[in-house]
Every structure is written in structure tokens, then in C-alpha cells.
Amino acid sequence: MTMSLGPYASFIVMSYVLVAAVVLLLIVWIIADYRRQQARLKEIEASGVTRRSGRSAADIR
């Protein structure tokens, strides 16, 4: 069973390649941004600022 894409084969293949490249780029960007955000959060916490979500219920009272 072979598939013939006809005269538009190059357009179809390039479209899939472009979409795959964009998705891969977005994944890499999200990973890099996550690491930057984690590093920034550590810097902020090291400077003495604490997160409200990091406190327990006993600390609030």
C-alpha cells in the first residue's frame, strides 16, 4: 500500500516539516523558560522573600 501525494507532495511534506519544527522549538523554549523561572525563584527566595504558598496553616495564624 503506497501513498501518492500527487503534484502537491512537496507542499504537504514541507508543511509537516515546518509544523514539526515549530512544535520542537516551542518545547525547547518552554523547557528553557522553566529553568529560567526556577533560577529566578531561587534568587528571590535567597534574598529573603518567601512564597505564601510555602507557608503552613500554623504560620498564618
Plain-language structure description:
The protein is mainly α and 61 residues long. The protein is 69% helix and 0% strand. The termini are far apart. The mean pLDDT is 87.
Question: Tags for this entry?
Answer:
61 residues; mainly alpha; 2 helices; 0% strand
- List how many beta strands DSSP finds: 0
Spatial gap, N to C terminus: 70 Å
Helix residue percentage = 55-70%
Q: Count helical runs.
A: 2
The biggest sheet, with number of strands, parallel, antiparallel or mixed sense and barrel status, is: none
Envelope shape: rod-shaped
| Helix/strand order | HH
Structural class: mainly alpha
Low-confidence stretches: none
The proportion of residues in beta strands is under 5%
User: What is the rounded Rg?
Assistant: 24 Å
The overall pLDDT average reads 87
What's a concise summary of this model?
It is built from two helices and no strands.
Write the layout of secondary structure elements.
Elements: H1 9-46, H2 57-60
